[in-house]
Amino acid sequence: MAGRFVSNNMSKRCKVFILIGVILAVFFSSFYYFKYSSVNKTFVKNINKVWHVKLPKPENETILVQRQPSFHGDEEDFVILEYKDEDIEKIKTALALEEKNINLDVHIKLLIEELWTKNITNKDLSKVIRDNAPDMNKTYFGKYISLKEDTEKVVFILQGNKVYVIQIFM
């Protein structure tokens, strides 16, 4: 009888320790996830950090394509940021935007084409890219930035009150 009591008592202790361990694991993994993942960050905060710019917080962020880094490190983003009219001058200054020109046109078109080509197998995604790309025939202000021998590139296109951001990391 005494052996059975000790066995049940040990079993209860073991269950309590396992339960406490599971609770602690869930707590710490949740803490890590929210502290270090991009869940609690806006796209603009990430853009400001990666590209060393100072964009103001937008009224709205529409993430059209967001492919997280794969095994090879490839990552693609296509996001439309909508701003109040009074923020437009801040954006032009923060990004040192250029008026539409042939050099900028080439970089923008190549980056849009690259994004579209990488996603051509996904018909829905390629349609989203095509349908939401900025109208290159209209007036715009833009900025192209390339780092690390052209393996990290981003383009900012300001058209109206929208900033189109396309970034690709290879």
Describe the structure.
With 170 residues, the chain is α+β, with helices and mostly antiparallel strands. The chain has two domains: 1-40; 41-169, no CATH class. It is 46% helix and 24% strand. The protein has five helices and six strands. It has helices spanning 2-36, 43-51, 88-95, 102-118, 123-132, and strands spanning 60-67, 75-82, 98-99, 141-147, 152-159, 162-169. A six-stranded antiparallel β-sheet has the order 1-2-6-5-4-3, with helices on both faces. A hairpin with a 7-residue loop joins strand 1 (60-67) and strand 2 (75-82). Helix 4 (102-118) packs antiparallel against helix 5. It is elongated. The termini are far apart. Residues 36-40 have low confidence and may be disordered.
Helix-strand topology string: HHEEHEHHEEE
Q: Name the structural class.
A: alpha+beta
Q: How much strand?
A: 15-25%
Average per-residue pLDDT, rounded, comes to: 80
Radius of gyration, Cα only, in angstroms? 24 Å
Strand arrangement within the widest β-sheet reads 1-2-6-5-4-3
Number of domains: 2
**Oligomer class:** single chain
How far apart the termini lie comes to 68 Å
Number of helices: 5
Largest sheet: 6 strands, antiparallel
Tell the overall outline: elongated
Number of beta-strand segments: 6
